[in-house]
Amino acid sequence: MDDARNTGAAPATRRGALFVGVGVAAALAGAGYAWMRSRQSGPVATPASGTGTAPGTDHAAADADQAGAQQFWAQEYETPQGTKLAMASFKGKPLILNFWATWCAPCIEEMPQLDAFYKQNSAKGWQLVGLAIDQPSSVRKFLDKTAVSYPIALAGFGGTELTKALGDAAGGLPFSVLFDKDGKVRQRRIGRLSEADLQAWSGLA
Question: In terms of CB atoms within 10 Å, which end of the chain has fewer, N or C?
Answer without folding.
Answer: N
